[in-house]
Automatic annotation (TrEMBL):
The keyword Hydrolase applies. InterPro entries: RibonucZ/Hydroxyglut_hydro. PANTHER family: METALLO-BETA-LACTAMASE FAMILY PROTEIN (AFU_ORTHOLOGUE AFUA_5G12770). Keywords: Hydrolase. One of its GO terms (molecular function) is hydrolase activity. This is Hydrolase.
């Protein structure tokens, strides 16, 4: 019997991709962590070929000048959006989804090629190594995949394109990764100095969760399990963001952006979160 062909398996729940193997892993490291979950009917796996055969496709949309989003329809995994930051030197891809096709690759090519891939945290890596390999450098290695050293153990598909960084790295002129912690030790944001009309924008994934209404954000250890981050993690996160000039925040899902006034929204939201977390806020109907 011929050996089974190797497949780079993708978890159906979180859409993160594992190294090529004849059979899928026994379980998904992301989904068995206490921040995520395995569906009640069990672990399922897919692949790029299977997703393409099912009719999934990439859809591009403009977010603001210099920033485009790519989503997958129908959605894969938790349905987050990737964001493409274009610069004169090429594009930086943030939080890639768990699928890519020719339309996705062509969109990056049209933006001048891929400088590298970065992510907010280990849940939103998608098929980052596939992206890297579509855009090899002169040495034949894929485009850089930037991973905070504090999350190195969460690299599910190791590759020589993975570049570890520490607390801050400028990946293109005016485009800087900043580690904040909180949801994960390596939870990060991407600061884009030229965005928001030159006032600056933060691309946050769910390092900071943009909430419906475009005026509030939150900060959680686990979003599906609804576990908050403790106050000391919030303080560190706010301290990491404080020096960055920004007026906009672009979240991890389509439509979840605060296009202006985001610094104030972050401050008000953090005060509210802290008040409820520590019990200084209260509901008069229940305090009798
Ligand atoms: Zn998973």
């Amino acid at each position: 019997m011929a050996p089974a062909e190797d497949t780079a398996w993708i978890c159906c729940t979180c859409a993160n991709q594992y190294p090529p193997a004849p059979v899928p892993p026994a379980d998904c490291r992301i989904c068995t962590d206490d921040r995520q979950y395995v569906p009640h009917d069990g672990q399922r796996w897919t692949s790029l070929a299977e997703l393409a055969a099912e009719g999934h496709r990439t859809v591009w949309a403009d977010v603001e000048p210099g920033i485009r989003q790519l989503t997958v329809e129908p959605a894969v995994g938790i349905g987050h959006r990737g964001l493409l930051v274009t610069t004169p030197a090429g594009a930086v891809l943030w939080d890639p989804p768990g699928f890519l096709d020719d339309a996705a690759v062509d969109g990056v090519r049209d933006a001048g090629g891929l400088l590298g891939v970065a992510r907010s945290h280990p849940h939103l890596c998608g098929v980052q190594i596939e992206w890297s390999r579509r855009f090899p450098g002169p040495d034949g290695r894929g485009a850089p995949v930037w991973v905070p050293r504090r999350d190195a153990a969460w690299v599910l598909r190791p590759d020589d394109a993975v570049h570890l960084w520490d607390d801050r790295v400028e990946v293109a002129p005016g485009v800087t990764l900043v580690r904040c912690g909180g949801h994960f030790a390596g939870s990060a944001v991407l600061h884009v100095a030229a965005a928001a009309g030159g006032a600056g924008a933060l691309l946050v994934g769910d390092t900071v969760m943009v909430l419906p209404g475009h005026r509030r954000v939150s900060f959680m250890r686990s979003y599906p399990m609804l576990l908050p981050v403790p106050e000391r993690y919030l303080d560190r996160l706010l301290a990491a963001l404080d020096p960055l000039p920004f007026d906009a925040i672009h979240g991890g899902w389509s439509g979840l952006s605060i296009p202006s006034g985001a610094r104030q929204a972050l401050a008000v939201s953090a005060d509210l979160y802290r008040a409820w977390l520590t019990g200084s806020a209260h509901d008069p109907d229940q305090d009798d």
